[in-house]
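Let us work through a complete example step by step.
Step 1: write down the sequence.
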Amino acid sequence: MAPAATADLPAQFTATRRMTAELAAPLSDADATVQSMPDASPAKWHLAHTAWFFETFLLRDHLPGYRLFRDDWPFLFNSYYEAEGQRIARDSRGVLSRPSLAEVLDWRAHVDAAMEQLLDDPALAPLIRLGIAHEQQHQELLLTDIKHAFFSNPAGPAMWSAPSQAPAETPGQGWWRHPGGTVPVGHSGEGFSFDNEGPRHRVLLELFALADRLVTNGEWAQFIADGGYRTPSLWLADGWDWVCRQGIVAPLYWRGDEQFTHTGWQQRNAHRPATHVSYWEADAFATWAGHRLPTEFEWEAIAVDHASDAGNQLDGGAPPLPQGGGGLFGDCWQFTRSAYLPYPRFRPEAGAVGEYNGKFMAGQWVLKGASCATPRGHSRGTYRNFFHPHQRWQFTGVRLACDL
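Step 2: predict the structure and record it as C-alpha cells.
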C-alpha cells in the first residue's frame, strides 16, 4: 500500500461517508434489507460493513479505550476476513431484518465521530486511505446490488425519477494505435494504490490498436439478430455451456426494446454503450466483430494519455447510466482477456488487510477503466477490477482491440 498524504484525508473521509448516505437516502428499511442473489448484498449490509471496516482496523486497533458499538455485530458484517473470525454466510445476509436501517445509520454516525480523533495521525494515513477506497468500492456495489434487487421485483420499481437526456448518436469507430515494444506497467508507488496494482514491471507488447469508444446497444442488437447467442463457433467452450444451461439470449436487464435502470424500465437507446455483459459474452461479441478483447497491459499502455477522472463517473446521488463518449474512462468497466493473476514479485500485505485482493487471484478476469457507478477519482490506469467470467450485474462493457 503506497503512502498517503494526511492533509486532505479528513475532507476525503467526510465526503466519502456523506456520499454513501446520500446514495442510500431513497431506500426504505425493506429496500435496504433485500438480497436478490448470492453475488449481491443488501444495501443495509454495505452501510454496516463499511462502518465495520473503520471500527475494526482503525478504532479497535488504534484508538485507546475504544469499545465496539455492539459486540455481536462483527459476526454479521465481516465480509471475508478469515483473520477476523467467523461470520454469517454471504448468501444469508438478506435474513438480517435486524439491526434496522436506522440502527446501522446510528452506528455509522458513532464511527464517524470516533474517527475524528485518528484522521490527522500520519502513521494511520495509509490505512485510512485504504478504508476510503474500500468504501468507494462499496458505493458502486450498493448501486449495482440494489439495481438487481429492484429488477427482481415484478413491479420494476424506480430508485430515482428519470432525468431528461439529450439524444445521442453513435460516433464512428476510430482506433488508438500503439507501436508496441517494452513498456512499464503497474503502479509507480506515488499516491494510493491497492496491493494488486504492483509491483511495477515491464511487459513486451506487439503492435496493436484499441477502439476509441465502447460497443453500443445498437451494435449488440445486431449481434443478437445475426444469431450471436445461437452460434457455438463464436463462443469459448465454457461460455457456450453457460449460454445453453442458463438460456442466455441478451445482456442482463434487456427486455424487448427496453432495459431496466435505476429509474425503472426505460426505452433502450441504441447509441448508448452496451452494459451488463459477462466475459463470455464480451469475448463472443469480439469474435463476431472480427476483433478481440485487449490485454490489461495493452489497455494500460493506452491509458497513460488519458485522464482517469474524466468521463461519465459517479458524482453523487443520481441514477447511473452509460452515456457514451470518446474517453477511455467512465460509462462501463471494460473486459480484458487477461486472467487476474499476481504480478512478478507480488506479496500480500501483512495482517488481515492482506486478504483484500491477493487471495482472489484465480479463476477471474481483469477489467479496466471505471463505470458510471464508480466514484470519480477512485480509479487509475493501473487499477485492476476483477470478476468471474459469468458475472454481469456490474456495469461491464466492451472495448475492442485488434492486431496491426
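Step 3: interpret the result. Residues 196 and 240 are 30 Å apart (CA to CA).
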